[in-house]
Design goal:
Elements lengths: L5 H15 L7 H6 L18 H13 L6 H12 L8 H10 L4 E10 L4 E10 L6 E7 L5 E6 L3 E5 L8 E10 L5 E3 L4 H32 L1 E2 L2 E2 L4 H25 L6 H26 L11 H13 L4 H17 L1
Parallel strand pairs: 1-3
Antiparallel strand pairs: 1-2, 2-6, 3-4, 4-7, 5-6, 8-9
């Protein structure tokens, strides 16, 4: 998020806020019309040729609105998967179709293999936006251990129920399904895809945490107790200050991860994901508490943010899993 693009990101954020203010459920056509789906699609294929820094802005605003969309699986991850593949007669029409809205794809990041005979086998849980997708883009390894993306549409997709009703996830299973040679695309940088997914979720958590802080501050200014606004009480001030500190640290870590080089990306994402998604649950929980009795009602809407923050915390790696990765990296560096 370089300073040169600050104005662009501010404009993008303002437009996103305006679109999302019309309703928390945003359909695929609206995402396409807004130009968000094709942000990272090359301009020669109908996209904007932008970077993940711009996508991160949209992810943050979707979290701020607790919006129900298919953006994570259908755009952020699907385009990310295809951008690891070289130009081809298969890849390019897929990217163009995603950009113009005629194709809704979903990326499947799990444990899949393609045999030398062209049989796809594997399983993945909690795949975002897989149900109803026109194409499934399966990250897999081939018989030689190489990275490939398999374009499929006949896998077994089973919707998974969630407490977080703003998300749609599914299990995806392939039990020796035959795939054509043309559907197997050789890819690179596949390890970065999970980092990309984790960082997108962290951006979402930052947005929802900031929304909860803003809502709590507004409430503390208007809710009175003992003849004065509750925001004037020291305990409430300290609680809001703690929420602000958590959000500020999270934003700094996300900014670092978005701007990281490939060599430092895994560690930067692990720090951003583990801290931000854990902090977001704490911030929303504190918002619930500071809203008093109304915070526990359906009317306040805080429960929507709490359930989303809780699911984000585990999606694409729990804080404990990411911290374990950081610890292993530290032990490895010390051993050298």
């Amino acid at each position: 998020m370089a300073a040169d693009f600050t104005d662009l990101h501010d404009d993008l954020r303002a437009v996103a806020a305006d679109v999302l203010a019309r309703g928390s459920a945003v359909d695929w056509a609206t995402l396409v019309d807004a130009g968000w789906v094709g942000l990272e699609v090359p301009d020669g294929l109908g996209g904007s040729g932008a970077t993940f820094a711009e996508v991160a802005v949209i992810c943050e605003e979707l979290g701020r609105a607790a919006a129900s969309t298919s953006y994570l699986g259908g755009a952020v991850l699907a385009v990310g998967v295809l951008n690891t593949v070289a130009d081809s007669a298969v890849r390019d029409p897929l990217l163009a179709g995603i950009a113009d809205g005629t194709i809704r794809a979903a990326a499947v990041l799990g444990d899949f293999t393609v045999s030398s005979g062209g049989l796809l086998t594997g399983h993945a849980d909690f795949v975002p936006d897989a149900a109803g997708a026109d194409r499934l883009l399966v990250a897999a390894t081939d018989a030689a251990g190489g990275n490939v993306v398999v374009v499929a549409d006949e896998l077994t997709v089973t919707a998974q129920p969630l407490l977080d009703e703003t998300r749609s996830v599914a299990t995806v299973t392939a039990d020796g399904i035959e795939v054509s040679e043309s559907a197997v695309l050789h890819a690179n940088a596949m390890a970065a895809l999970r980092n990309r997914a984790a960082l997108a979720v962290a951006c979402d958590s930052l947005g929802l945490a900031e929304a909860m802080l803003a809502a709590t501050v507004d409430y503390a200014k208007t809710r009175t107790q003992f003849g004065r606004p509750i925001g004037s009480f020291q305990a409430v001030k300290h609680a809001c200050a703690d929420m602000q500190v958590k959000n500020s640290v999270a934003r700094a870590l996300i900014r670092e991860a978005v701007n990281s080089s490939e060599a430092d990306l895994a560690a930067a994402v692990a720090m951003a994901k583990s801290y931000t998604c854990g902090a977001a649950v704490d911030v929303v929980g504190k918002a619930l508490q500071l809203h008093g009795g109304i915070g526990y009602t359906w009317e306040s809407g805080i429960h929507v943010y709490l359930k989303r923050a809780t699911f984000n915390r585990s999606l694409f790696g729990s804080p404990a899993a990411h911290r374990q990765h950081l610890a292993q990296r530290y032990r490895t560096s010390k051993a050298k």
